[in-house]
Amino acid sequence: MEKNWTSYFQQQLPEIIEELRTYVEMETPTHNKQAVDRLGSLIAERFRQLGCRVESLPQEQYGNQLRMEYGDGDEQILILGHFDTVKEVGTLAVEPCREENGRLYGPGTYDMKAGIVFSYFALRAMMEHNLSPKNKLVFFWNTDEEIGSVSSEMLIREEAKRSKYALVLEPAAGDGSLKTSRKGGGDFILKVTGRAAHAGNDHAKGVNAIAELAHHVLAIQSFTNYEAGTTLSVGTITGGSASNVVPDFAMTEIDVRIQSREESERITRLMSQLTPVHPEAKLFVEGGITKPPMERTAGTEKLFLHAQEQARLESFELTEQGVGGTSDGNFAADAGTPTLDGLGPVGDGAHASHEHIVIDAIPGRIAVMLRMFLTLS
Ligand SMILES: [Zn+2]
Description:
The chain contains 11 helices and 18 strands. By secondary structure, it is of the alpha+beta class. It has 2 domains: 5-182 and 293-375, Zn peptidases (Aminopeptidase, 3-Layer(aba) Sandwich), CATH 3.40.630.10; 184-291, Alpha-Beta Plaits (2-Layer Sandwich), CATH 3.30.70.360. The active site is at residues 84, 145.
């Protein structure tokens, strides 16, 4: 392992960028199955050429999920990524894939087509050098991560349960840090019904749903506990029809983020225990916490230290960070599998028009990925 893989991949940089450009120029919004499947077929073909055993798992509504195996070994390491994006077909016309100031811009470059392309070049280097991983590598590329992995969550959980570790090739944090914890979260909806009445003639007969909701808005906000990493944000509020009508309906949508299982349970309990202040008002709580938190376990720490060691062999320093946003790493971690996230590109602007990756950082990231694939046991 004396080889400096960074300089090896440095030489391949033009080819790596070209390959990524091919991926990016095939737009893949989650809801466009046909478009997503087109790139899926290309990815399947590419990895098959490297000797991967590729399985396409058919989906009716979203793009087919891809599961691919590389190498042998009794135990498996799961590598997660997605190739759907949030941008509609046609975005490329206004946000073309382009190189500028040492960055490669384009929808899906950072989140997260680069991660998949990096793994391809890592595998290819392995093949060209006759190196084999200590464990079987199982790649799972899904197609609906951007909408919460509705059709792939169970598949990811099952695959994670079978795996010794999970590596997520989502982008790194802004400074290149790997992601060792992620908050979990979800959305609650609180609907309130009251009784309509004429605001002038029958004020006393009405049950004002907005007034009722107001009590709960403040209560819900107060469930926030910054120290525990828990936030609740009342994000929208609607209700009523006209100023002279006592409103019989009001509702609010609430964004929830939590950092631990206990907090997830606490919030779920508190939300279910909301009771009407006005005896004739009714409350309906919908939604809930759908993404479990990815906690920084001892297993995660061990994985991170291993990655850090691999980076040192390539003469650079890797750091770690806990982040607020979620990924499929949350599901893998919730299945009990030590999970390390953010192994993909360095860059910025996920889901935004300035989405890009830093070209200089590419060789080092692939080098660490390759070393992880080879040495994790
Ligand atoms: Zn992503």
